[in-house]
Amino acid sequence: MDALRGAQFSVDHQPLLDLQALPELSADARRCVLNLDLYQHVIFISTNAVRFGLECIDDYWPQLPVGIAWYAIGDATAALLAERGLAVVTPGDAMHSEGLLARPELAQVAGEKVLIVKGEGGRQTLASALRERGATVDELACYRRTCPQLPAGALAGRLARGPVAAILISSGEGLENLLTLLSAKETTKFRDIALVVPSPRVAAQAQEAGFRSVITANNASDTAMLQALQQWRAGD
């Protein structure tokens, strides 16, 4: 938000995801944590996966085991892991599962063990592809994402009062929650609002939902989203 204000945008903030730590790990998740030193690759999906995941791991591993290749989807996620002294592999500008799958470190993983630290649910692209490459893949779900609870019409009222010219959506799930919080009639009313989204996949979701002006950023980072928004403003 500070970067947006620094670029002379007027900003209103409405989270589209509520995050909750799981009350306790499942038996399978606890087994994954206890056997952390048996994995060759550990992948953190997001900054939230680092925050919630390391909290779970620290309960069993005050000192992280050595000999593991650590991965992060996104620079912010990598930065949090680096604070723990970990050398991290990232997909670079392609901050998504497909980008990470293109890394040479994950090209030959047959017979190796991979742990994906994530929230409940979510895409299975990464796990499915690694299993197809012959890896044994486990998932450590350490938090859940829910849709914020807002009174009926509350989000539509905020959009109308602005008026809001553009909305930044950082994930497909965030877009789904936006549509949940707006009725079908309200979505139609606001379909001319520009949406800045992090990938072609989310752009396709937005267009299918009826939004007419969809701007696709290079990735979900703050820098890329701001750059896309500035380019949209310059061409508006």
UniProtKB/TrEMBL annotation:
<dbReference type="Pfam" id="PF02602">
    <property type="entry name" value="HEM4"/>
</dbReference>
<keyword id="KW-0456">Lyase</keyword>
<dbReference type="GO" id="GO:0006780">
    <property type="term" value="P:uroporphyrinogen III biosynthetic process"/>
</dbReference>
<keyword id="KW-0627">Porphyrin biosynthesis</keyword>
<comment type="similarity">
    <text>Belongs to the uroporphyrinogen-III synthase family.</text>
</comment>
<dbReference type="InterPro" id="IPR036108">
    <property type="entry name" value="4pyrrol_syn_uPrphyn_synt_sf"/>
</dbReference>
<dbReference type="GO" id="GO:0006782">
    <property type="term" value="P:protoporphyrinogen IX biosynthetic process"/>
</dbReference>
<comment type="pathway">
    <text>Porphyrin-containing compound metabolism; protoporphyrin-IX biosynthesis; coproporphyrinogen-III from 5-aminolevulinate: step 3/4.</text>
</comment>
<comment type="function">
    <text>Catalyzes cyclization of the linear tetrapyrrole, hydroxymethylbilane, to the macrocyclic uroporphyrinogen III.</text>
</comment>
<dbReference type="InterPro" id="IPR003754">
    <property type="entry name" value="4pyrrol_synth_uPrphyn_synth"/>
</dbReference>
<dbReference type="GO" id="GO:0004852">
    <property type="term" value="F:uroporphyrinogen-III synthase activity"/>
</dbReference>
<protein>
    <recommendedName>
        <fullName>Uroporphyrinogen-III synthase</fullName>
        <ecNumber>4.2.1.75</ecNumber>
    </recommendedName>
</protein>
<feature type="domain" description="Tetrapyrrole biosynthesis uroporphyrinogen III synthase">
    <location>
        <begin position="3"/>
        <end position="227"/>
    </location>
</feature>
<dbReference type="InterPro" id="IPR039793">
    <property type="entry name" value="UROS/Hem4"/>
</dbReference>
